Amino acid sequence: MQKSVLIVEDEFLIAMDLQAMLEDHGWRVLGPAANVRDALRVLADELPTVALLDVNLGNELVTEVAVKLKANDVPFAVATAYVNAEQFGGAVLAGAPNVGKPIAERRLLATLELLTQH
């Protein structure tokens, strides 16, 4: 079965690059969602295998999406320049792997593969 990933990223070009990169490596991309409302709408329709979350989505934080993912046992990574994402996005982000920004392809792919094994 094909693995799916929800991308939550408010920067359009970054989201498109991530989608293309992940699809090239056999992932089915849900979204990308640019805000909390759109991400929750995607999750209402289908739960992904894993998720990749930008912490700061313009004028809102991704916290509510992370809470929904955790409640449904969907593992996620964050993609942020913040060293401690939980300081900005709340305790729900504590312990989530951070692939950083800018995102290195090998690091991202390795992190998502690791998350699928849990």
Question: Describe it for me?
Answer:
The protein has 118 residues and is α/β, with parallel strands linked by helices. The protein has a single domain, classed as Response regulator (Rossmann fold, 3-Layer(aba) Sandwich), CATH 3.40.50.2300. The protein has 5 helices and 6 strands. It has helices at residues 12-24, 36-45, 63-71, 85-89, 105-116; strands at residues 4-8, 28-33, 50-53, 56-57, 60-61, 76-78. The strands form 2 sheets. The chain has a 4-stranded parallel sheet with strand order 2-1-3-6, with helices on both faces. Strand 1 (4-8), helix 1 (12-24) and strand 2 form a beta-alpha-beta unit. Helix 2 packs parallel to helix 3 (63-71). 36% of the residues are buried.
Offer a concise description of the structure.
With 118 residues, the protein is α/β, with parallel strands linked by helices. It is built from five helices and six strands; from the N terminus they run βαβαβββαβαα. The model has no long low-confidence stretch (mean pLDDT 94).
CATH architecture: 3-Layer(aba) Sandwich
Task: Return the CATH class.
Answer: Alpha Beta
Number of strands: 6
The domain count comes to 1
Main sheet, how many strands, which sense, barrel? 4 strands, parallel
Helix amount: 40-55%
Into which percentage range does the β-strand content fall? 15-25%
Detail the poorly predicted runs: none
Order of helices and strands: EHEHEEEHEHH
User: Between the first and last Cα atoms, what is the distance in angstroms?
Assistant: 16 Å
Q: Name the strands of the widest sheet in spatial order.
A: 2-1-3-6
- Coarse shape: globular
Organism: Aquamicrobium soli
InterPro entries: Bact_response_regulator (IPR050595), CheY-like_superfamily (IPR011006), Sig_transdc_resp-reg_receiver (IPR001789)
Keywords: Phosphoprotein
Protein name: Response regulator
